[in-house]
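Look at one such:
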Amino acid sequence: MTAKSSPEISPEKDYVLKSIQSNDIHFIRFWFTDVLGSLKSFAVTPSEIQGAFEEGMGFDGSSIEGFSRIQESDMLAYPDASTFQALPWRPKENGVARMFCDIHTPDGQPFDGDPRYALKRVLKKAEDRGYTMNVGPELEFFYFSNPESTQPLDNGGYFDLTPLDLASDIRRDTVLSLEKMGIPVEYSHHEVAPSQHEIDLRYDDALSMADAVMTYRLVVKEVAMKHGVYATFMPKPISTENGNGMHTHQSLFSADGENIFFDADDPQGYNLSAVAKSYIAGILKYAPEFTAVTNQTVNSYKRLVPGYEAPVYVTWARRNRSALVRVPLYKPGKELATRIEVRSPDPSCNPYLAFAVMLGAGLAGIDEGLELPEEFTANVYSLSPEELAAAGITTLPASLGEAIDRFEASTLMRSILGEHIHSYFVANKREEWAAYRAHVTDWELNRYLSVL
């Protein structure tokens, strides 16, 4: 009797198995996210990896936010071999690595509640049209002395070079850790507010970038903890300072590497193709409907107020940073540099869902043949309500409650994310909004208690 041959293994999976052995990896963490974007993980030993590639690893999905009901709790995590990386903050001896996972149901079907799968579905729609989405996010964060206070480590401002014994060393170690994990960094610098920093990732395809954002947020916190401080991506931790944004640069490329957003012969002189203009128009049209996803917390709307460099009004421009959508002009006329920047998202979002809804809105603009409105070059914050109305300028939702109303009513958002994620997200965020509305804040006590 001949021995049963084992299934042929792909080069990527073979690389993982060999790397585990040659690098003394003893634990492989399987990473995935819940609907809200919290990173989840369980550890697997090397002896289980080949079986996990073939059959997945089972876990209880009923304990994960937005996954499944207790009577439908069994889930399978299939590791994506292309995401294998050793964790540089863990010891090299008996090392630890990670792989992102795709979640399936026991019958082998992709799970509708998996945010990674939601993004893959929209990317497939783009691919069917001949498009690949490239993304380059700019994530901002604060370093504080501890998690219980907002005491800054420095009083620096935009691009300031702070003393080496403060945040510069922490930021340096963070960049080095990211690059050790195969995540290229384009810029790192001090931001506008005291102790606020930004590390910009070099653009990549949207799925790889969503994985990178999840890794980035963990690395920033791990390195900060190693230095005895606390890092936070909370959108607006200090009421008198600028908040944390996640400005998201994006473009569509063809299969042969051409930037579909670029047109050197653009009659309006923007160097934007007709596809790019309709894409921007789609973002502008549907931004009020997707804001609940890109800005998903009560605190997110403390950032989206006039006066703190965050967009409030639904406009687009090239140089004007008060606009919701900007077309950067760092390298005018350069094809590869042509992109748009959506300035409203913040780093509390689930990047898989955020990229999905922005891409879905842009594709809808293309499919609907939307025309790009006139560029708005004035400082929109200086206009009166009457002037805004005359210009036809609308606003983003002013609160999580308003954002959820717009999101729940959106047929497009339900179509992009699927019924499972859409309905769970609405229910969860309505509960958050109700809890916030019922909470009596210190501001109210200080303002009213002694006078009413």
Summary: The mean pLDDT is 88.
